[in-house]
Amino acid sequence: MQVERGSMALPIEELTPRQIVQKLDEYIVGQDEAKRAVAVALRNRFRRQQLPAEDRRDIMPKNILMIGPTGVGKTEIARRLAQLARAPFVKVEATKFTEVGYVGRDVESMVRDLAANAMRLVEAEMVAEVQGPAREAALDQLVSLLDDKPIQYQTPVWFGGETTEAGAESEPQETAEEREDRLAKLRKEIADGLHDEKVVEVEFEEAQGSQFLQVFTPQGMEEMGLDMNQLMGRGGPKMGYRRAPVKEAIEILTQNEAKRRIDTGSIAKDAIERAEQTGIIFIDEIDKVAMPSGGSGPDVSREGVQRDLLPIVEGSVVATKFGPVNTDHILFIAAGAFHVSKPGDLIPELQGRLPIRVRLESLGEQDFVRILKEPKNALTKQYIKLLGVDGVKVDFKEEALDEIAKFAILVNEKAGNIGARRLHTLLERLLEDYLYDAPDVAPPVVTVDAAFVREQLEPILKDLGRNQELI
User: Fold this and answer.
1) β-pair partners for 105
2) Is residue 315 within 8 Å of 106, Cβ to Cβ?
3) pLDDT per residue over 124-137, tens digit each?
4) 76 with 66: CB under 8 angstroms?
5) Is 189 helix (H, G, I), strand (E, B) or coil?
6) Pairing of β 64-67 and β 356-359
7) For the chain, how are helix, strand and coil distributed in percent, rounded to 5?
């Protein structure tokens, strides 16, 4: 269901908190407390949209602070939440920002990034809506390009007061019905892929290289995008021609037709509204700008970053190249490991703007086993699909998953705990020979059992001091 607000339909799905958690369970193992918190936050957005306009303004989002070590799912929860809501989403690291007056990115840049993300999202949705008629128009263009018998115009020629028609006797003319039938047949052949290898010349939009100029502004160092078309007095994108197979040409022409059919004037307006009403900003490494009381030097700059963050999280208007963005109803999710500092080291004003706090627990051996096999995008499923492309079938035994999880725990204890990210490294090391040999000399079937895992990973674990940087 889409909820109307003004002239725009905000794509907030009618999912209950329980349904949202079930969706998150498809990709993320454990961390039920964090899932519940973000599910309630997303549902509250839907609830807010059902209220009268005068009541909506008074209901602010309850921003969230996630506390937990690296590799336990903080970023993945926020990213999947944004996908569920089909909302503009930006992930930033607090350590990349500097206090106003220092060289570096200022905190307002994350709102500008959100607006740009919303622009891409809205444009993609508008293009998808007209994809059907755009493809039909693209087929019509290809019919014209591939038609080897173009329409013949009869030119009257005068001889001695009598009118004859050029070529009338040498070549019989095609009737309108015959031409229509022939072109309809050609159109169906193109749609069925029978002319995919033929080459045609099509018009396409030339890619404009991103051209940025760093400038000093009152808010600090900023990147200013240059629109070369406007600077050179040209309107619209620069178009060119290229030769391409029909299979590729139909996609180029479909995109061209789709862009002609969308209302470019309304994209910026809708994108700004989408960013303001449904945008999500994920601020990672927030603990790195927290500091115990009594700091000095660089610590003072970190406190300055917090103070710059405060008005953005609190609600303010940020100027972007697409228009001003009000941050009152943007959902902010901050996250940090807080190994050295603690949440109480954040300035009190910022703590108050992050009222919902959830702790994500460290992952254990059984969690790793579940991560390897349960999620839709589980690592084992990814490797099965990747090697399947080269005709290699990979069979992961249950006992092998237990061994991989056990090795991940041991390496995390000895070489630094990076959570579930350790599984990526171990699986890559486990299958690297087959990934390299396929499809040349790899066997058609690879069975990964406990003995195979021990054979591949035990030598690395025994010589962990030398191999530590590799795993």
Assistant:
1) 97
2) no
3) 888 888 888 888 88
4) no
5) helix
6) parallel
7) 50, 15, 35
Q: What is the DSSP letter of 97?
A: B
Segment 217-227, tens digit of pLDDT: 544 445 544 44
Whether the CB-CB separation of 435 and 394 falls below 8 Å is answered with: no
Using DSSP's 3-state secondary structure scheme, residue 244 falls into strand
Between these two residues, 229 and 109, which has the higher pLDDT value? 109
SS3 341: coil
In tens, the pLDDT along 304-335 reads 888 888 999 989 999 988 889 999 999 999 99
What pLDDT was estimated at residue 150? 61
The pTM of the full predicted model, rounded to 2 decimals, is 0.74
* Prior bond of 88 cis (ω within 30°): no
Name the 3-class secondary structure at 364. coil
On the CB side of 263, CA atoms within 13 Å amount to 7
Closest CA to 318 of 327, 330, 309, 310: 327
Q: Give 445's Cβ-side CA count (13 Å radius).
A: 3
Closest CA to 337 of 395, 419, 415, 265: 419
pLDDT in tens, 144-163: 888 776 655 555 555 454 55
Q: Please report, for residues 11, 108, 110, 195, the alpha-carbon distance to residue 88 in angstroms, rounded to integers and kept in the order given.
A: 11, 16, 12, 39
Distance of alpha carbon 450 from alpha carbon 453, whole angstroms? 5
Q: How many CB atoms lie within 10 A of CB 252?
A: 16
Q: What are the pLDDT digits (tens) for 72-123?
A: 888 888 888 878 878 898 988 888 876 554 545 778 889 999 999 999 988 8
Question: For residues 435 and 384, is the Cβ–Cβ distance under 8 A?
Answer: no
DSSP 3-state assignment of 449? coil
Sheet arrangement for strand 89-93: 89-93, 280-284, 331-336, 64-67, 356-359
CA distances from 337 to 73, 75, 163 (A): 12, 12, 91
**Quick one: residue 71, left, alpha or beta (phi over 0 = left, psi -120 to 50 = alpha)?**
left
**Paired tokens of 110:** 């994350």
